[in-house]
Amino acid sequence: MNEISKRIEAIKERDSKKVLNDWERGFVANIGRVSTSERFKGLSEKQEACLKKIEVLLGIDDPEEPEYPTEYGPIDERLRKVDSAAKYKPLDDDIPF
Predict the structure, then answer these.
(1) Are 66 and 52 in contact (CB under 8 A)?
(2) Residue 70 and residue 78: Cα distance in Å, rounded?
(3) What is the DSSP letter of 65?
(4) CA 55 to each of CA 26, 34, 42, 78: distance values in angstroms, whole numbers, following the listed order
(5) pLDDT tens, position by position, 8-59
(6) Which of 10, 1, 6 is nearest to 54 (CA)?
(7) What are the DSSP calls for 79-90, one per residue?
(8) Residue 66 exposure: Cα atoms within 13 Å on the Cβ side
(9) How far apart are CA 15 and CA 10, in angstroms?
C-alpha cells in the first residue's frame, strides 16, 4: 500500500456525512481508486492541496505555517515592541512621502 492509499484510508475512516460534502467524498473516492493503479505517477499540486485541505478539515493533519521568503516573513519581534507610532522608524527611509 503506497503513501497516498494510506492517506485515503485514514480519510475514509474519519469521514462522517456531516464533515465532507459530496464533491470532497467523490474526490477522495476517485483518488483512492486511481492511486492503486500501476500507472499512477503521483498527485498534481492541486490534487495534493485538495487532499491536504480535506485532511486538515478532518483533523488528521495540523495546518502548517507557510514558509515565507525572508523579505515576506512575519514582522520582527523588535518592531512589535514599539510603544507608539511616533517612536517607530521604518526600515526603509527611501519612501517619498
Answers:
(1) no
(2) 16
(3) P
(4) 15, 18, 17, 36
(5) 888 888 877 778 888 888 988 888 888 878 887 888 888 888 888 888 888 8
(6) 10
(7) HHT-S-TTT---
(8) 7
(9) 9
At residue 47, φ and ψ (nearest 5 deg) are -65, -40
CA separation for the pair 8, 56 (Å, rounded): 13
Smallest CA-to-CA distance from 4 within 21, 75, 27 is with 27
* Residue boundaries of the structural domains of the chain: 3-58
Cell output for 31: 483518488
The angle, 0 to 180 degrees and rounded to 10, between the axes of the packed helices 3-14 and 22-35 is: 150
Provide the whole-model pTM: 0.57
* Rounded Cα gap, residues 51 and 58, in angstroms: 11
